[in-house]
Design a protein that fits this description.
Blueprint lengths: L3 E4 L5 E4 L2 E2 L5 H12 L5 E2 H8 L7 H16 L12 E4 L2 E4 L7 H11 L5 H13 L13 H27 L3 H14 L4 H13 L3 H19 L5 H12 L9 H19 L5 H14 L4 H20 L3 H9 L13 H17 L18 H19 L7 H16 L2 H13 L8 H17 L3 H17 L3 H17 L4 H17 L2 H15 L5 H4 L2 H15 L24 H7 L11 H11 L3 H9 L10 H15 L2 H11 L6 E2 L9 E2 H14 L1
Antiparallel strand pairs: 1-2, 2-3, 4-6, 5-6, 7-8
């Protein structure tokens, strides 16, 4: 199959199997550029007209169609007559360029830049060299004056500047300071407001034996920042200047990543030599390592989850309840999703925690010496141990309808507040959050939990809990329809996760941004965004999040659109087939169900989808039976969304009994957006569903 590639990192070009594609005039190129900027999304014809002409002439729409037809012939010259195009397609009100991933140089550049982030310096340098070699000039160079290209040109240029800095950083890590100088010197001259460029340039000079030049560069940076922005250098530049003046030996170390690896290897070897294989110290250290491993990414989280039960069993076998309490309670890894990744393992850990709680000495009133700092000896230490065990029970019983989970979380919170221990309180608040979905309408409460956790994390250097608190607030504000605040929390999560190397957090913000597109009503764009977010989730080590989430998100997306009175099919799609071949058209709700592939696995959400699938198949009696067999949804962040799926089936059937039951569940969440408090999916405002239920009940 022919491969068509596109270049935008310089003048806009196209090539087919390595040969240049003739693109005719400037407006043909402009149409192609606008479609490439849209990144496979549909661009309406009206927008193309506005972009191509400041004052559109008569016949502008026809001219755009002519340009598109010419581009199609150039891009797919061998396409048989009257066969639909595969690359430049018509969809709804406009056109989309369905470029294959990897065929646009800007996309390859971004992939390489992102891929370099988790690599050792040598591999990162290779990726960044390849990425920067793709640039042939300024991005979209032939459209520098066009308003529609400015935002994308600025975004790509910023990424290029970051790539230059990161390549220099990799060279410094490899001890190649002199090789980093030319690019940094040129970038500092061209972009004098970039503090990181100045810092790397000064450091490269210092490591090249040019201390005086390094100090001169730092003085130039101070002057440039004052002239360009009216500000003083930031803390990193000021610290570097002080270190250069003091000739700090730490500045001579080429490559923190390599040094860190060496330190790790030496420390691990020393630990193996010094600490006995079966010792309790080794067991407790192993749990600390698992805790650190769990926040490093999908593989680390999965490895931590696989090894944690063995550590718990080994601690119990030592016949020392206090040791077992420390081992079980040390795994205080913040969790944001209210459904367990491994329910069987969770039950095992809860059982071990309950046994250990019963075996611990009573802690009295939790007062006395050590109560304020959680010391392991004395009454305060016992109280802290009980708090950690109770918080563990609250966390591991997430998504389970049992009074024990909420009770344990409340007890943990009370002990942590009594001990005035910020880390304990943050852990306990995570458990309280996990038990906050026992009924609909908890977004306000979760927002308060998130605000306190984020404040604790920021105040007491607990970055994982600051990220956790911000993520909770992102979810909660979305559920309340306050998307401006949710956006701000999502941006903070992205920043904090990068600063503290917490990559899994960005999986959730990616899903949140797909939700934002869904809320905007751009159904086709939202479907694309959800599929891209699902690709990020694949391999994240979070099966409790991943299972069934993509098809559920797509179903909710189409149901939301259908339920607000719009056609169920996305823009430009053909009409839904008629039910039963020649019968009346499907209802918008059942047509929406048909928009989700029957091959998609529904995971744990299948029971709530089943009545709708049966209705679409014309099996009304079976659908009614499946509807009445539904249990109360699990107490998790998707509670309201699943209730709305139940309501959708009940509305289709006109089932008054089921409608009343769902209405009573949903009433406490009337002011919220169904599903949005998950930060991932939405079925629209709860009030809209309640109004539809009220009308149906009144008519029944």
């Amino acid at each position: 199959m022919e491969r068509v590639g596109f270049g935008v990192l310089g003048p806009v070009t196209a090539e087919r199997d390595g040969a240049a594609v003739p693109l005719k005039g400037p407006r043909h190129r402009a149409v192609l550029a606008v479609l490439l900027i849209a990144r496979r999304r549909v661009v309406p014809v009206d927008r193309l007209v506005d972009d191509l002409w400041e004052d559109p002439p008569d016949g502008a729409v026809g001219a755009v169609r002519t340009f598109v037809a010419a581009l199609r012939r150039a891009l797919e010259p061998d396409r048989p007559p009257r066969t639909p195009p595969r690359l430049l397609v018509t969809e709804g009100p406009g056109y989309a360029l369905r470029a294959v991933p990897g065929t646009v140089d800007a996309w390859r550049f971004e992939d390489a830049l992102n891929g370099a982030g988790d690599q050792p310096p040598k591999r990162a340098l290779e990726l960044l060299d390849d990425a920067l070699a793709l640039w042939r000039g300024p991005a979209y160079a032939d459209f520098a004056a066009e308003h529609w290209a400015q935002a994308e040109r600025a975004r790509l240029d910023e990424l290029r500047l970051q790539a230059v800095e990161r390549r220099a950083d990799a060279r410094l890590a490899l001890g190649e300071a002199a090789a980093a100088l030319p690019d940094l010197d040129a970038q500092a001259a061209e972009h004098p407001w970039r503090e990181e460029t100045w810092r790397l340039l000064a450091l490269a000079l210092y490591r090249s034996g040019r201390q005086a030049d390094a100090l001169a560069v730092l003085r130039r940076a101070r002057t440039a920042l004052a002239d360009a922005l009216g500000v003083d250098p930031g803390p990193r530049l000021r610290r570097l200047e002080a270190d250069v003046l003091a000739q700090d030996p730490a500045l001579e170390q080429p490559g923190a990543a390599r040094s860190a690896a060496e330190v790790w290897a030496r420390t691990a070897a020393a630990y193996d030599r010094s600490v006995a294989a079966g010792s309790r110290a080794r067991l407790e250290s192993s749990v600390g390592l698992l805790r650190s491993l769990a926040v490093t990414g999908g593989g680390g989280l999965e490895a931590a989850r696989e090894n944690r039960p063995a550590a718990v069993r080994a601690a119990e076998e030592a016949d020392d309840p206090e040791l077992a309490a420390r081992v079980i309670g040390a795994y205080d890894v913040p969790a944001i999703w209210t459904r367990s990744d491994d329910p069987a393992q969770a039950r095992e850990i809860v059982a071990a925690a309950e046994r250990t709680l019963a075996a611990l000495p009573e802690d009295g009133d939790g007062g006395g010496e050590g109560a304020g700092n959680g010391e392991e000896g004395g009454v305060g230490g016992q109280a802290a141990a009980r708090c950690r065990l109770l918080a563990t029970i609250g966390l591991e019983m997430r998504g389970i309808r049992s009074p024990r989970g909420p009770q344990a979380a409340r007890e943990a919170e009370a002990i942590a507040r009594r001990l005035d221990d910020p880390a304990l309180l943050a852990f306990a608040l995570n458990a309280v959050f996990m038990q906050s979905c026992t009924r609909a309408g908890g977004a306000e409460r979760r927002d308060a939990i998130g605000a306190e956790a984020a404040a604790l994390g920021a105040r007491h250097a607990l970055p994982t809990y600051e990220v956790f608190g911000r993520m909770v607030r992102m979810q909660a504000r979305a559920g309340l329809g306050d998307f401006a605040a949710a956006d701000a929390h999502a941006a903070a999560v992205d920043r904090l996760s990068l600063e503290n190397e917490l990559p899994l957090a960005r999986v959730f913000t990616r899903w949140y941004r797909a939700l934002r597109v869904a809320v905007s009503g751009r159904t086709a764009d939202a479907e694309t965004a959800y599929r891209e977010a699902a690709a990020d989730l694949d391999g994240s080590g979070m099966p409790g999040v991943e299972g069934g989430l993509l098809p559920l998100a797509l179903l909710c997306l189409h149901l939301s659109r259908a339920h607000r009175g719009s056609p169920a099919a996305p823009e430009g799609a053909p009409e839904s087939p008629e039910a039963g071949g020649g019968g009346p058209p499907e209802s918008p709700v059942l047509a929406a169900v048909g928009r989700v592939s029957p091959d998609d696995g529904w995971g744990p959400y299948r029971p709530w989808v089943e009545p709708l699938l049966l209705l679409r198949a014309g099996e009304d009696d079976e659908a009614r039976a499946a509807l009445h067999a539904l249990p109360d949804p699990a107490p998790d962040l998707l509670y309201e969304a699943l209730c709305c799926l139940e309501a959708a089936a009940a509305l289709e059937l006109g089932d008054r009994e089921a409608l009343v039951k769902v209405r009573d569940r949903l009433l406490p969440a009337r002011q919220e957006i169904a599903g949005a408090a998950s930060g991932m999916v939405t079925v629209g405002p709860v009030a809209r569903w309640l109004d539809a239920i009220a009308a149906a009940v009144a008519d029944a």
